[in-house]
Design goal:
165 residues; mainly alpha; 9 helices; 0% strand
C-alpha cells in the first residue's frame, strides 16, 4: 500500500466511523469527576452516531484498502455485538452519569470505546502529518489567493490603475 493511499484510507476510516463526533459527544461523560444527568439530546445523538459508526464500519470492510487497515488494527473488537449491545442498552437506561460508572462492565465498554477511537484519531493525525504534509507541504484550500497576490505584486503602475477603474 502506498503512503498516500494509506493516509487517505485512514482518514476515510476516522470519518466513516464517526470517531471525532463520538468522542466529542461522549468523552465529557466518562469523566468520573463530572456529575449530573445525561441529557436526552446527548443520549439520542450518541445512539445515532454509534449506529452510523457501525454501518460505516460495515461499508469500510467492502473496500480493500480500508479493510486491510481495519484488520491490522483489530478494529473489529470495537464493534463486537456484545460490546455494542452493552453500550446501546446502557444509554437509554441511564439517567445519571453515576449509573454508567457504577456498572463496571458498562463503564469499561464506554471507556474502552472512547480510548480506541482516540487512538485511531491520533494515529490518523500523526500519519497525515508525518507521511503526507511533511513530504508535500500543506495544501492551500484557496490557491487562487497566491496567484492574485503574485499578480498584484508584479503589476506595473499603469496596469494597476486600469484594473481599479
Amino acid at each position: 500500500m502506498q503512503t498516500l493511499e494509506f493516509t487517505r484510507a485512514l482518514n476515510l476510516i476516522v470519518e466513516k466511523l464517526k470517531a471525532r463526533e463520538l468522542i466529542r459527544v461522549w468523552e465529557p461523560l466518562i469523566d468520573t469527576r463530572a456529575d449530573g444527568v445525561i441529557a436526552e439530546e446527548v443520549k439520542n445523538r450518541f445512539s445515532t452516531l454509534i449506529f452510523s459508526s457501525n454501518a460505516g464500519y460495515a461499508r469500510l470492510l467492502d473496500l480493500a484498502p480500508t479493510r486491510k487497515i481495519l484488520e491490522k488494527l483489530n478494529i473489529a473488537q470495537v464493534y463486537e455485538p456484545a460490546r455494542l449491545g452493552t453500550i446501546i442498552a446502557a444509554i437509554p437506561s441511564s439517567a445519571q452519569l453515576q449509573q454508567i460508572w457504577g456498572n463496571g462492565y458498562s463503564y469499561a465498554a464506554f471507556y474502552s470505546l472512547t480510548e480506541q477511537l482516540w487512538s485511531l484519531v491520533r494515529m490518523e493525525s500523526a500519519c497525515r502529518s508525518l507521511l503526507e504534509e511533511e513530504k508535500k507541504g500543506k495544501i492551500d484550500p484557496f490557491p487562487g489567493r497566491k496567484i492574485l497576490a503574485f499578480r498584484r505584486e508584479f503589476q506595473s503602475p499603469s496596469e494597476s490603475d486600469s484594473t481599479h477603474r
